[in-house]
Amino acid sequence: IACCGAAPPGAVQVGGCSGTLVYRDLIRVVGVTAAHCGGKVGGTVQVILQDGTVSPGTYIAVDHKRDLALFSIPHKPHSLATVTDTAPKLGSLTSHWRQPGWCCQPR
Question: Taking the model in full, what pTM does it have?
Answer without folding.
Answer: 0.73
